[in-house]
Amino acid sequence: MTVIAVLPNSVSIAPAQGLALGRRFLLVSWTMDGKMDDTATVGPITPSVDGQPVRPPFTTLTIETGWGGRRVLSILPAPRDPRMPIHFIANNRVIAELRTEAGAACLDPAGLLGSLDGAARLRVLRFLFDFACSTPALRRDAAFAGLCRRMVLDRAAEPALIAVRATAGGDLLLCAGALSGRFGAISGLVVLSPKAVVRAPFDAVIGPDPAGMGRIAFDLLVDRGLCAPGNLLVVLGANGVACRRFSEEPVGLPTLTERLNARPDTPAALRHYLLTSLAKRGLSDTSAASAVSELQALAPLPRRQAANARQPIGASLDLAVPTADGGLFLAGWLHDPHGLAADLVVRMPFGGERRVERFANRFPREDVAKFYGASGIDHSGFVLHLSGTPEPAEALQVTAELRLASGGSLRLVPPPRPRAHADARAAVLGSLPPRFATAELLETVIGPAVAPLHAAHLATRGEPEVVVYGERKAKPAISVIIPLYRTLEFLRFQIACFATDPAMAEAELVFVLDSPEQRDELVHLLRGFHALYGLPMLLLVQSANYGYSAANNAGVEVSRGNRLLFLNSDVVPDRAGWLPQLVAALEERPGIGAVGPKLLFDDDSLQHAGLYFDRDLQGAWYNHHYFKGLPRDFAAACRPRPVPGVTGACLLTTRDVYSAAGGFCEDYIIGDFEDSDLCLRIRGQGLDIRYAPSVELYHLERRSIGRHQGYTRGVASEYNRWLHGCRWSDRMADLMARDWHDDALPPSRNGGTRKTAQVTR
Questions:
Q1: What is the Cα–Cα distance from 389 to 704, expressed in whole angstroms?
Q2: What CATH number does domain 465-735 carry, 3.40.190.10, 3.90.550.10, 3.40.1190.10, 1.10.10.60?
Q3: pLDDT 10s digits, 344-374
């Protein structure tokens, strides 16, 4: 038990007056004249009952009176025994005492606020509201709420109405009002209902009076439930208190997006306020989060750039892509031959800022050079990646200010980022010519932007549609997984070869369509092939293009065979009976993890006789095919042997090996380097990979990927090569130190033994 030791008093004890504050609290008031100790020396004031300190919540306020004294107000829980006196102690001395035998009187607003000037009255009201809003038992006390309403209405008997302008996020309303020009900055907002005192959920944003009458206009987001008719909005300001009342919600209110589109002159501060407030609410309210996305997508800011050939400086943000991890990718140009720019400040839609002091990654922009008539080498283009903390909701559009050394600035507004993650990823990859995608730029700029966008795109996957043609085999000898993207014209040749090959009767055919816009065409096409040949088939239709790896992995997931053959749609067998030969090569000896055949171009030259790795002049690793372009019967290409890897255009493995490798890695973009990545994972299990030249197929190389604009126009291939090299550089170097013409050499657990490379190319 804690007991307060009180020293003898050297000052008189002030008598205090107790006023009932709702059902469970007291407001105690006493005065100190000039003869009493100055409050600066009094120190913290603690209430006690019967020698025991009162347990929180309680609070105390000291204010100046109009006649030079000081009034002390204290809010505390009412004692259980009303006969016990309450002492107020400072510096171990009792400075005031409340005797409660007669009970607490009802609070008289006039008596409480009398002799106080405007600033002191404002402090008292804030004192009451702040304590009530932080104390649930008092906040929900109807008697206290009624007292607060009397205090406010005593100063404003007929409060003006607050207008309701629009709906926001389902359960929020945008309200607007006006205040006197002398009101000052808004410092607090409280909603008074007949039964509760509630702090307004959001601050207000102020702006100029649209009517031009010198007033202060304010806008405020409020929960619909708080906007009930009869509720009061108390506005606390630097120079006063204002009261407004809510009216009936108008019928047919516009949404925020509709209102902003109808008012293109909406102040930037209001737009920023709406985004920031809705984003905070969106963390717990999906409707508010949806409103944020809708506001940015349907009512974007118009694009703005500084492009005047007569001006000595110009700039544009062509692309700004915020990512879910808080990163921000920027692409644009800066024409600044005189060095006038100081830095670039980018403002996020929810209040954060990113600053660019150095434009490091520059490259030529012929369009900019032509526009400004620049001569010599132009390096106005730039790409940047700025790290940061994640936004509270999806960010689609930023604004920026290019600040000049003189103190001036140029305002820049890029278009909103593409909504679809795949489109945003393609925009990043297409933001600069591939020849400028250095390893450093890929690591510091492109990679940090592409990786989260790619992951976000993959996260949108749903269950693919499954279409079955004929009766499925319960235990097929082999499952053939064939991903499809755009190119369907080779299917008739491929399926015709399968239909005339008796060995294919035991195989399961699984087609995976990665371009769902072709769904109806392909369903009709396969239905016709099934009717013509009677081959059972399975079709998976992905909801979007998720890339080569995802398509193969989806096909494996629904397949039933213990052997898995990954086959491109543009690969056609040279003759029947090829599949059993490939299976025999896989099962020729223990320890083989995968095999691949000889692949030919349509002119009978070699396209693939195994895959190997080599560095370019800059030291970057690339995938190469043995003997590519040489004659079909080139002697070295006609010998079965181990190889570092084989192409995914035709790769046979087992389900166990595939599963142990983790399947195809889906981190690569669209389709490149995934097959060599899988081979390196298989070799990581201590297994061998072999080339089977007796199996010959024609491969019309890269016909489908060549139709993917996001790949051919950007730096996706360079990104995949860089990612592949970062992960496997050491293992590729180790593998290529081995003599791959020595078939008798067993593979080591790490993929090879240290020998001098002797590779015929």
A1: 39
A2: 3.90.550.10
A3: 999 998 888 999 999 988 999 999 999 998 7
